[in-house]
Structure formats: structure tokens, C-alpha cells
Amino acid sequence: xxxxxxRLARLGFVAADxxxxxxxxxxxxxxxxxxxxxxxxxxEALREAADPEAALTGLARLLERAPDRExxxxxxxxxAELRGRLLAVLGASTGLTDHLCRHPGDWRRLRGPEAERAxxxxxxxxxLLRAVGADDSADPAEPPAARPDRIEADPVMALRAAxxxxxxxxxxxxxxxxADVKRVAAELADLAAAALEAALAVARAELGDPARWCRLAxxxxxxxxxxxxNYVSDVDVVFVAEPAEGADDEQAALRAAERLAAAAMRxxxxxxxxxxxxxxxxxxxxxxxxxxxxxxxxxxxxxxxRWAQTWEFQALxxxxxxxxxxxxxxxxxxxxxxxxxRAAERENFVADVQAMRRRVEASIPAGAAxxxxxxxxxxxxxxxxxxxLLQLVxxxxxxxxxxxxxxxxxxxxxxxxxxxxxxxxxxxxxxRFLRRVEHLLQLHRMRRTHMVPDGGTPDGRRELxxxxxxxxxxxxxEDSFTAEWRRHAREVRRLHEKxxxxxxxxxAARVPSDQAGLSPEAAEARLSALGFGDPAGALRHIQALxxxxxxxxxxxxxxxxxxLGWFAAAPDADGGLLGFRQVSxxxxxxxxxxxxxxxxxxxxxxxxWLLGSGRYATDLLLRAPDxxxxxxxxxxxxxxxxxxxxxxADAVLRRHATAEFAVTGLRALRRRExxxxxxxxxxxxxxxxxxxxxxxxxxxxxxxxxxxxxxxAVLDGRPSPTRFTIVAMGRFGGRELGYxxxxxxMFVHDPLPGADEGEAARTAHxxxxxxxxxxxxxxxxxxxxVDADxxxxxxxxxxxxxxxxxxxxxxRWSSPWxxxxxxxxxxxxxxxxxxxxxxxxxxxxxxPEHGIDDAxxxxxxxxxxxxxxxxxxxxxxxxxxxxxxxxxxxxVEWVAQLLxxxxxxxxxxxxxxxxxxxxxxxxxxxxxDGGDARRLAAAWRLAGRIRGAIxxxxxxxxxxxxxxIREGTVLxxxxxxxxxxxxxxxxxRTARRARAVMERVFYG
Length: 1004
What we know:
The chain is mainly alpha-helical. Among the domains are: about 25-115, no CATH class; about 500-610; about 670-845, Beta Polymerase, domain 2 (2-Layer Sandwich); about 855-1000, Nucleotidyltransferases  domain 2 (Four Helix Bundle (Hemerythrin (Met), subunit A), Up-down Bundle). The longest helix is centred in the last third of the chain and has 28 residues, at about 690-715. Belongs to the GlnE family.
């Protein structure tokens, strides 16, 4: 290493050898180790640059291309202000370095008092118009007249060079602290507006005479409209046009306007010797990219009145005329602004906003969220989304909030008391930091990006170092910057969650604060916009939970700002908050409850979602509130095996002397297990097959325990004269129970040898009656209805039959529907030996040796058709009834059962009780096409999920998808759909495919 390189290394240059060569090439003299040296000031300025090596390389490139090389070098040595600005730009932006090398004379834009001054928007507009040869002397409110005699030979390249000349001056002031991030963003927006005006002038000259037929206004949207643009960002616009005065043909005028708009966009975007400015994006126009590029004002107004979605009004928050006909632009704003401030009153406002937010988060590429400065957690979009939503909610009545810019709107929200002063200051600081980082990312290569470099690579570390140094970090700048960024991101996320909710507590509970609080009316407006259907009721719940000086109220005031956000995001915000109040009232004095919610965020978040997903789980939790403790552990939410439940049930029965007390304990066990399954289902930890298996296991254990209690009570210490077995039927036998399913059963007994048959029959009947009585006792849990109507002769036949009676009946009277019903018969409880004998008895009926004959097939088909026509509830939509409707559960199950009746005699795998297993066996045996089986299984699972979710939401069973939009939306959200319409569309499509298969396979 040379002596010069050694000195440079000690001065902080990483590539010291190359730096020494460049110093020699430029002609700069390095300072001595013990003296100031003639070029010490230049070296110090290089050391201060974000990337000293890049600044030195850029200076060498510029000097090589500059015709006034000696003047430039002398100026760098002598002029401290020029030196600081030039080297700051060269060290931060290779993109602007490239511009300087193409236009080396532009370094003079960084010298003198003018380089420190922020220009006015009109001044920038005039300069860019002059660059393309357009008339810049006209009133800025009027479109500039094209001067074909003055248009440059290549006005597009001239415009781009002039634009970047202005960016160069702005970046120099930005990087040396002469312009803050808000001023930088505003100047960039004004510069973009001026460029669009100049592009329109070029387009008018290209179009010639037809350009005079129309009036065209360019409306800036997004960051351009709000005057908060980035260095490199899409410029969002909307075009509005009208025929010029005296134009006879409106359609010809609109065609001219469209050509004019397209040409102006092309001027900004097309490739050339000078890099394109930015993308001009007109996708925010009505109907998006599918809609016409240009519309009249009346067409815009009609669209927004009738068709616009909520997000389109949110986009209009930032609309501003930026170029073209200023009068027409002002008319556009006047026509549409009132609609913006009524958007929060739309019925689907909350669902639309939440769905849009989920789409934005889902759009982040996998693995990129933690480096996404814009869309990631704690990013710019979190701030903008929160501020815009508060504006839409409260700006209806408070015009001071109608500021398009994020920082201005945040200041207004703070001044109005909608956001706390400290919170607003913290959020503003975080937003300014994030925008500054965004600017530094884009300045580097003058490219659009929001990705923070990956610190795991050498290039990424160097880029992080550059950003850190530009932000003022000197010790380990890459690590210091990363730590500061993460801190701001965490603060943004925290404040994003807090912004909506803390003032609600102040309004409801009058929490002491040094900041203005929301009025009750403003608090109700915010709650309504967040999705609470009864905002006044929600305020009462908040007040009840947080008022007072107790420790309980203090902890609730800590919990609720975050939990209210989770309730608002849940399917039913009102139900969730009500349930939380009820559970808190039941457990509020229990020390572990609030401590658990406070210290275990996962428990609190899951509890909010669970309570906001309907009445079923909420009611179970209210009856067993200590079950909240299992919410934080996925393992604890896993359904327990039937054998483990049986062991616990056995212990419960041994603890209690009387049947009534014992059955109470048994039902408490069932209640807790139902909650476990419902919670796991709601959180998506188990699928519909596992739900059916778990509910069937719980029911079997409950019936077995109740049978033992009933037997004990009836016999009262006497020996039993008979054996007794419970046979599960229907969905219970298939291990496919739903939350609201009855337990379909048949009771079988068999007198012991030598016992009196009359006494045995009376004992068996008494046991069955006592079992049903015990399970029907009033209790705070979902009822378990034991239905024995599938027994021989139905309700008219005896409740309990002997095995011999069943044999005689089936030999003589059995019909095809009974054979079909027996397909799902399975022993559930009682004497195992008797159960095995019963199973052996029914085997020839449900799996006939030669299948079923044509008469039986016709009878089964007639029964199915009759059921469809007679059993469907009056007024029910067959397309939405998940059990008996077209493509519903019944369709799929009857297909599976017909295949079993026809072929199980020769395909043993078909001899099961479960629907999907039968379909799979049929595919394996070549009896059913695999695609058909998948369509049937998809419909069966979806119908089962919907039926289960209906019970979870309502707290009671139901088979039809509700048509009420509010209840349907809650149901859809529980099932994971964005909207009620999406659920219905998916179900109709899935059921329609299954129905087509059913008609072909079942009816032939």
C-alpha cells in the first residue's frame, strides 16, 4: 500500500488504493498526516459524503467530461457551498452523477445564492415550458399555447434534461439539509405538474389543429395530487375533457382529447437518449384500465354517483388539478369532493376498506415484507391508511381535516383532538424518517424502489452504509440505520393500532389526559366507520370496562386500544365487544385473567377474533370462562382423543353419588370440549373432517356416560336382566356430526339367559327413557338431542327392541331406505358383544350379496326426488340450502350410499360409514371418475364448513346461507371470504359442479 493510500485509509476510505489513484488523476493533493494540506477541505467534504468512494469516482468522471475542467476544479477547491452540494450529490446518487456527466455544465446550478433558494411552482412551470419551446408567458391558469416555430428539434429530450436539472438542484438542497422531506416532496410534485404541462404542450404541437377542439384537464392523484411525491414514483393521473367552445362534434373532441392525453403520457414515458421521467399511471380512472382514458365531467360524475367503490373515493382524497385546463380541473373537484366526504356513510364502507387493506398486505412478495418500506408492517402505507381512514370518518363534519397531504392531515387531526398531540408528533417524525429513507433509496440510481437493501450481502451492506451515512450515522452506519428504521417501524405499527382507539376510551371513560378528547358524537362516528353496527352500545361497553380507578379498569384501559382494533377486524365487531364485556364481568376479579390478556398478546388477539366470530363459542366461553386459558396454545386447542375423554368421563362418574350431579359434570366436560373444537375450527387449526370426528367422539363419550348413569339409576343395585347397546346412525354413525346435529341412534337390548323377557324389556325401556331425561335436564350448554326416529317403524315403533326383534323385522319388513340408513350404523356405547352381533345382523341388509335390484334402485331414486320436492323448507333457495339443495350434502351422500349399495358386496373397501372414504374407495375400484369424486368431495366439505359456520355465528343451527347482507358478511368472514357475495359465488359454483356429477351418477 502506498503512503497516499495509507493516509486515505486512515481518513476512512474503504478502497484506499483506488482512491489514491483517482486523487492523482484528478490532481488533488492529499493532506500530510501532520498538516492541513492544500486540499484538506476537499478531502473532508468527500469524507462527509454518503459514499466517499462514489463521490470521488463521480468527481473524476465529471472532470473528465467537463469542457471547463479547470474552472470546475478551482470552484470545488474554493467554494465550500458548491463543494458540499456537489459532493453530497455525487456520493448519494449515481443516477444524478450520470446526468452531470451527460450535461457537465449543469454543475453551475449548484453554485451561488440561487442554489439555496426554493423555487416557486410557477417558475418551474415556466422553465420547463421554455425547454420545449412553448409559450411560458401565459397566465398559469390557462393551458400554454403551442408555438410550433419555437418547438425544439427534440423537445422530449429537452424536457427530460431540464427536469433532471431541477431534480439535481433539489437533491443538493435535500442532501445538505436546506430542504426538509415535506418541502422536497412538494417540489417534486410541482416539478411533475410542470413536466405534465410541458408534455401537453409538446402533444398539442404534434396533434396540430384537432388539439383546439377540446379542453383537457389533468388531475393529479396519489402522491402527485397531495404534493408528496418521491424522486422516482409513478405519477397517478385522471383525465377529464370537454369540447372546446364552438366545437360541434363532441365525440370528435373527445377523440382529440384522448390522443392528446396519450401523447402527453408518451412524452414522459417513452425510451430515448435521456431516461424516461416516470410512469404516468391512469389506472385510478373510472373502471381502471378497462375504462376510457378520457371522460367528460358529466361521465365522471355519473360513474362516481352510481358505480364507484369505496377505495375510489379514498383515492380522490388527494385529487388536485395539476396541468391543462385549470377551470375544468376546478369544476371536477367541485363536483366530486362532496361525494368523497359521504363515502364513510356507505353500507359497505368498513368491509371495503378492510378488504382493500388485506389485498395490499397480500400483494407483498413472500419473504419481502420485512424489507418493504412502503407496504410492510410499520411502513408508509400504515401511516397513510390510518390518516386517510380518520379523515374519511371525521372529515364529513370537520372541514379542517380535508387536507390532501399526509403530514398536513395528521396536523389537522391532532389540532382537532382526533389524535393525541404526542402520538401525532411521534407518527409525523416516523413518517418523515421513512420518506427520507425512501428518497435516499430512489436517489441512488434514480429508480423506483421501496425495498431496503439486504444486509446479508456485501452490496447490501454497502448500500445500508450509504443510507446510514446520509442520515448522519458515522459509527457502524449500516447497523445504526437498521436499528433506527426498525424502531420507527415498531412505533408506526403501535401508533397505527392506537390511533383509532385511545381517543374512544377518553370519550367513553373520560380518562384524564392533557390532550383534547373526542366528543361522544365523534367517537360514535369513528366506531361506526370501524364496523360497529351499534356505536352507542359499543361506547357503553367501553365505558363499563374502563371507568374507575381500580386495577381492573387500569388494565382494561391498557388492553382495549389494541383489542378494539382486533374486534374491528373480526367478523362481528359488536358481538365481539359485547362478549368481551360479558367474559370480563365473569372473570374480571380473577387475578390471572387480565394478567393473561395483558402479558400474552396471542391470547388476547385470539379471544377478540373468537368472540367476534359469533354466539356459539362466546356462549360456551361464558359458561366456562376459565377455558380462555387454552387460547394461547395450539397444542391445547387440538381435539382430544376419544379414549382420553372416556377416561376423564369415567372419573367424573365416580366422583358423584347421584345421577343428576354426575350428568352435570359430564355435560361440563362436553361443554369444555365443544369450546375446544369450536375455537380450533374458528382459528383454522382443524378442517371439517376433523371437526366431525371430534364432535362425534364427544357425543359418543357423553352418551356412554349417560347410559351408565341411567343403568345405575334404573337398576338401583339390582343385577341387570339384559344387555344394552346404543347404535349410532346417520351423521353420528359416519363420524360426521356438526355443531347442531342431533345424535341419531337406535337402542338394542338382549335379555340374559334365563331372565324374564318382560322384565328385561321394561328395564331396557326405562334405561332408554332415563338416559334421554338426564341429557334433557336444564343446563348451560348446547342441548344434545337424542333422536331414535330411524328405528324400525319410526316413532310408531317401540323405543327399544331386542336383537331378535330387529332380526325378525328386517327379514320381513325392511325397505330400501332402511338398508340405506343402515349403511352408517355403528356401535356407539354399551355392551360391545351385543354391538358386534347387531353389526353382524345388519351386514346382509346394508351390503346385499348381489347388490340391489332395479326395483330398489327406482325406489331410492324416487325417495331422493321426493325429498328434494317436499322436504326443502318453503321459500328456501335450492341453490343456497347446504343440506337438501342442489349440490348439497344430501346429493353427495346419496351418491356415495348408492355406490355402496350397488357394489359393496364385491368391494370390501366400500363397507365403511364415512362419505368421503366411500367416494375414495369407489375411485380406487374404478366405479367413479377421480375428477367427479373431487367435485363431490369439494361440495361436501364446503357445505359442511358453511353449516358449521352458520351455527358458530348464530349460536344455533341452520342449513341455508343467509341472504341478509350483514349476517352473510359475518359468515363469509368467519369462513375466510372477503365478502358475502364471494361466499355465495363460490358455493353456487362448487355446488353446481357437484350437482352435475350427482345427476349423471345417481340418476343415470
